[in-house]
Amino acid sequence: MSTDTTTTRSSVPRPAPAGRGPGGRRRRTSVHPTARGIWPFVVPAAAVTALLVLLPIGYTVWLSVTDRQSDGTNAGFLGFDNYAAMFADPAFYNSLKVTLFLFVVCLFVETLLGLALGYVMSLDVPGRRIFQGMMLIPAITASVAVGLLWLLIMDPSLGAANELLAVIGIDPVVWLGDPEIAPWSIALVDIWQWTPFMALIIAAGIRSLPEEPFEAASIDGASGWRTAWNIGLPLLRPVLTVAMLLRTVDLVRFFDTIYIMTQGGPVDATNTLNVYGYNEAFVDQEPSYAATLQIALLVLVVLIAGVFTLVRRRAAK
């Protein structure tokens, strides 16, 4: 009886030790299927990135350190001569000032108006979706069409803007011909076009906020403004940062609307870095110096985007 029991127990296969297969042989550690299957997606993406991003940047850097002529010939290597000429160029500092002016004014006003309009768009009222669709019409309209539209509106003789001013007894304004007014006119067009975009992002962020903190504040008797300032804005900070980052990249490389409306004038009052670089490349036939200006613009975009990304990461903690 004991012999049969011993035989039965010995015939039961014992589980192999961890990391070993049947017979005590050590298993080969295979690559995880997810890690093994990711390379067919990474390699094409890296190749496309190198082709569409890194290659143009590298070519622009090469242009900036050489003396490329408009006929396609290259007079030789210049080193950092173009960069030295750029930092000694008053037009470069003027274009940088105009770029930063439009960036600060447009981003500040669009964020404030976007907050107010986003709150309205977040309310559950009849016709909200229709209102949202109509508000997005300026943002989805091509910038060239927007520029042509506002060029007609701001016409000093026949434009609707001066007609409205005349109704309320204000003298006509030379919207795009006065160096003091032209930058503000360009800012007005951008604010009109892109505030609904900011409002849509902010409205989606408001609707996604948790309700418990607001209910607790209401029970404690906090006013609406105090609740919005102390609870709503801190919770909405990550969404605001993302929306401002998206607008930052567009504002720093502002080009199409400006070129349609003023081409950088009058007297370089709206001549941003992007417009200045375009004029240097295709009007003054200085491709190497234009490439240097675009490298400066790239550095500016990276710096500002880096600041906003750092703020967003801190806000997410």
UniProtKB/TrEMBL annotation:
Stretch forming the signal peptide: none
Membrane listed as a keyword: yes
Annotated GO CC locations: plasma membrane
Transmembrane segments: 37-62, 100-121, 133-153, 289-311
Subcellular location(s) of the protein: Cell membrane
Keyword Transmembrane helix recorded: yes
UniProt keyword list: Cell membrane, Membrane, Transmembrane, Transmembrane helix, Transport
Bias kind Polar residues: ranges: 1-11
Membrane-protein topology: Multi-pass membrane protein
Domain ABC transmembrane type-1 intervals: 96-310
Example GO BP: transmembrane transport
Region ranges (Disordered): 1-30
Pfam family, one: BPD_transp_1
CDD domains linked: TM_PBP2 (cd06261)
InterPro entries, per the entry: MetI-like, MetI-like_sf
Membership in a protein family: Belongs to the binding-protein-dependent transport system permease family.
Protein known as: Carbohydrate ABC transporter membrane protein 1, CUT1 family
Organism: Micromonospora echinospora (Micromonospora purpurea)
